[in-house]
Amino acid sequence: MTKEKGFNKQKLLTIIGAVLCAILIPILVVNVTLIVKSFVNEDEVPGIGGYSPLFVLTDSMYPEIESGDLIICKAIDPAEIKVGDVISFFDPEGNGTSVVTHKVIEILNKDGALSFRTQGTNNNTPDALPVPAENLVGIYQFRVPGAGSVAMFLQTTPGLLVCIVLPIGLFVAYEVIRRRKFDKEKQADTKALLAELEALRAQQAQQNANNNPSPAEEPKEPPAETPAEAPLKESAP
User: Please, is 234 exposed, middle or buried when counting C-beta atoms within 10 Å of its C-beta (0-12, 13-18, 19+)?
Assistant: First the structure.
């Protein structure tokens, strides 16, 4: 029973470790990819397959989108944008790198130049400047509540160490220890099995010896006794 419980515990820990790796490794790969792309193309929002993750820092779109959320936007042709769409764009009032996610309240087309009037649903007034079509990053798809804060922490050195490197390192160490323990137990079981086989062979050999005794030697006849000579009787004088 104890051995079975130990096996089930090992199996459970292995499954948990595999699940953690399946979750953490893709997150690590995505983070590294986004970080590399952000350095290679500083003027673009890093993304994968046309989808870009963005971290929400304000509540201008509350309650639809909240501060700390992770949102995903998809690259789209500016001509396909409609009034009511929520879009992410480089802030025309910003430093050229800050991205804002607001709702389109009006589409402007002046002298063939397409632009969008936007406003945060939690703001009282529209944004001061229209958004040129070339500033468009993408159209909002969905959000993951609270994941933005976690993702931002993961991009820091302590976050990578605590949430990615450390769990993976612990899992690898556990797997090494578990494998060594398994090998030792396997060797012990093999030795026990060999000893049992040897005992069975000895027992079988003994049984064979008992069932097939060696032929008994014929009894030897005792040597014939030489008749004893009768003592000579002296005759009376």
Answer: exposed
